[in-house]
Specification:
Blueprint: H1 2-12, E1 21-26, H2 30-42, E2 46-51, H3 59-67, E3 72-73, H4 78-81, H5 89-95, H6 101-109, E4 115-117, E5 122-125, H7 130-143, E6 147-149, E7 154-160, E8 163-168, E9 173-176, E10 178-181, H8 193-196, E11 202-208, E12 211-213, E13 226-234, E14 240-247, E15 251-253, H9 255-263, H10 265-270, E16 274-280, H11 287-300, H12 316-326, H13 339-350, E17 352-357, E18 359-360, E19 367-372, E20 390-392, H14 406-425
Parallel strand pairs: 1-2, 1-10, 2-6, 10-20
Antiparallel strand pairs: 3-5, 4-5, 7-8, 8-9, 11-19, 12-15, 12-18, 13-14, 13-16, 14-15, 16-17
């Protein structure tokens, strides 16, 4: 079976020599570009146009990973990979059998772009610049004659006999044989109305990958402090994540927080983003093991100031903050530590409770949970089950991954499958 799949991939990497037709891709992001350039490559007779409503192409690619572009993730077992998607797991489990992380790495390497793996599994171009990915995609578009139109917004689609008519915001109309919608996620339900008019239903959009706001909480004075490993749990839920946590001037961020926001996107929206978060700054310890360490410290370093003896190797600013929050005086020694204050400190180290009120999302990196109902899209082709020759790719679908390159992998995969299908049908 694996050999057969590999042969199919090999066959499809060669251009179709067909009669062609016209494909319009709506959206100039990762998924849209990948669909356009691969369709044009696979069938050179196909006329391919990308319509982007803004003045910028590949915006999320440019800013992802702090401008380095977190291209994918070094997770090659599909049985594990699909578990990184809070929504759309069964869907991507099917799509990844056609184009997965290995294929992404190979695709870019064949075009001179090598990727590297970081300790947490994230993969970036070895140049550490998103421009390397952008340049590669733009060069492919030029090589295969993909037309790009900026500031071109599609207002509606209509099937006229066997072709699609796109009505643009500028009053013009475009006729095309195939349409791939890769316009990204929308923050408001009403923004999907033009797709509802085609008979599609929408999983209501809510934010995913957001940070936790802690208005007026004193911990925000530690902005910039990062803890390599902490455990965060949302009170009253099963939501818990372990990993790096970053303290910001508005609250909490970092991979552990972003993963929590993804898994809890709908549940936390239902709570209007108000809930208690329990933080274990030292997740490898509990009350008992910490109490034993304090007992040992009273025996071995009784004359030392607690402020100068960071038991958990936490960032020093955080250690001093937790001492203050627990009532530990600046010059207090281990020998002088009252049991009540010791218990308060232990509690703050293993179960520091904060009240979250609100979220912060970043407009350019906004990710939504929600989109086109997956039961209405064929995972094997990316074609609509509601209308012929209408395809979807990327975040417009009700698929979203946790942070770490998983959303881009879905973009590459869905764009490639749509391209492969369109190229074959137009051959």
């Amino acid at each position: 079976m694996a050999d057969k799949l590999q042969k199919e991939k090999s066959d499809l990497s060669s251009p179709f020599r067909g009669v062609g037709g016209k494909l319009v891709v709506i959206g100039g992001g990762a998924a849209g570009f990948f669909c356009a350039i691969n369709a044009a490559r696979m069938n050179p007779a196909l006329q391919v146009t990308i319509l982007e409503k803004t003045t910028k192409l590949l915006s999320k690619v440019r800013i992802s990973g702090g401008g380095r572009c977190n291209t994918t993730h070094a997770l090659f077992d599909i049985g594990e990979l699909f578990k990184r998607y809070p929504r759309g797991q069964n869907f991507v489990k099917k799509t990844f059998h056609q184009f997965s992380t290995t294929d992404t790495i190979k695709w870019f390497e064949e075009r001179g772009v090598k990727l590297k793996v970081e300790k947490d599994g994230r993969m970036f171009p070895v140049t550490d610049s998103s421009e390397t990915i952008i340049d590669c995609l733009m060069e492919e578009a030029t090589r295969y004659g993909v037309e790009i139109k900026l500031s071109t917004e599609v207002k509606s689609l209509q099937l006229i006999e066997t072709r699609w008519q796109l009505s643009l915001a500028n009053g013009q109309n475009i006729l095309t044989d195939y349409v791939c919608i890769a316009s990204g996620g929308y923050p408001k339900s009403s923004m999907f109305d033009w797709l509802r008019s085609l008979g599609h239903t929408i999983a209501e959009p809510v934010p995913s990958l957001f940070t936790f706001n802690l208005p007026k909480h004193p911990i925000t004075s530690l902005m910039g402090v990062s803890v390599i490993k902490a455990r965060v749990k949302i009170e009253g839920t099963k939501l818990v994540e372990e990993g790096p946590v970053l303290i910001t001037h508005w609250g909490l961020s970092g991979p552990a927080i972003l993963r929590l926001s993804a898994w809890g996107a709908r549940e936390l929206a239902g709570r209007a983003y108000e809930y208690k978060a329990h933080i274990a700054w030292l997740p490898d310890y509990n009350d008992q093991t910490l109490k034993e360490r304090f007992t040992k410290a009273r025996s071995n370093v009784s004359s030392k100031k607690i402020a100068n003896h960071n038991l958990g190797a936490l960032p020093n600013r955080l250690w001093l903050f937790l001492l203050e929050q627990s009532g530990v005086k600046e010059d207090m020694r281990f020998a002088d530590l009252p049991a009540k204050i010791e218990n308060a400190l232990i509690r703050n180290l293993v179960d520091f409770v904060v009240e979250v009120k609100g979220k912060t999302t970043f407009k350019e990196e906004f990710v939504t949970a929600g989109g086109i109902n997956l039961s209405e899209v064929d995972a094997n082709t990316m074609m609509s089950r509601k209308a012929p020759n209408l395809f979807f790719a990327g975040e417009i679908l009700d698929v979203d991954g946790i942070t770490g390159g998983f959303n881009f992998q879905h973009a590459w995969t869905s764009g490639w499958i749509a391209a492969k299908t369109i190229a074959a049908q137009s051959a």
